[in-house]
Amino acid sequence: MGIATSGLHHVTAIAGNPQRNADFYLRTLGLRMVKTTVNFDDPGTYHLYYGDESGRPGTLMTFFPFHGAPPGKHGNGQATATAFSVPERSMGWWQRHLTAAGVEVGPVQSRDDEETLTFRDPDGLALSLVAHRQPDPRAPWDNGIVPPEHGIRGLHSVSLSVDDADATAGMLTGMGLSLTERQGDRFRFAAGDGGPGTYVDVLVRPGAERGLVAAGTVHHVAWRAPDESTQAAWRSELVESGVSVTSVLDRQYFRSVYFREPGGALLEIATDEPGFTADEPLLELGRALKLPPWLEPSREQIEAALPRLDLPSENNPERPVS
């Protein structure tokens, strides 16, 4: 394929209790709620978007929190870990902060140019913080909870677990990613020139049990396309190569197509445009429940079915407009 992605757009996972999910990602990890909406395909549940101040592509972690959802199972055929990028010399602070919040954290592990701290969110989703020696120029969301010098810069990488690397590697290289490193059964691919926000690690687990997508697991991984015309060309190339791809779906803040890589993980191509300020101002992001036009006639019923969700005041500080 001739189209090449510039990196990760977002990762979407399944959660249980929405308030517990919001408290963890807003107050414990210090991200911002950049959009409170619903699952457009199942409006009986929220779709919560967390990211930096404006929700730029590459900083986004999103959730479908199905209250009372059963726990999922990590295994082959899915993304089994999501990593966030933090600055160097931040691991000690994060160990203390997460421990004080009641999160069980593993030891800091060093690998080549990275330090990694692993833990799980309240639903069991496998997460890690990665401090890479290559500086990450992205600015953190400064909400007064996590000091900006330690704050999360955005996504670092995702890990896909597969039975065999060859077919998955073929699709990733066809998407413009290149193999940059191999350590045993772990293959790292990077988009563009590499760096935080561009990596996917392919973990080869021959014969391992297949995963089950439910609470505490990743639903899909989205890759960036700059605009709709690029996305359309990319979709055409996938179809011509025999991949089953959805039609283009309007997600209000980006356009999406979905397909599965040969190992089984669900992937998405999402446009960078139009972004999260399409229907509310920057300072008010995430504050109100936003619905697409085709769901607005059902707003009263949708709001009545959704559980109450309280956001901390830090999500929408009263900042002067520059």
TrEMBL record:
Record's superkingdom?
Bacteria
Q: Which SUPFAM superfamilies match?
A: Glyoxalase/Bleomycin resistance protein/Dihydroxybiphenyl dioxygenase (SSF54593)
Name the InterPro entries for this protein.
Answer: Extradiol_RC_dioxygenase, Glyas_Bleomycin-R_OHBP_Dase, Glyas_Fos-R_dOase_dom, VOC_core
Question: Which segments constitute the VOC domain?
Answer: 7-132, 154-272
Protein name per its UniProtKB record: Glyoxalase family protein
Q: Origin organism of this chain?
A: Actinopolyspora righensis
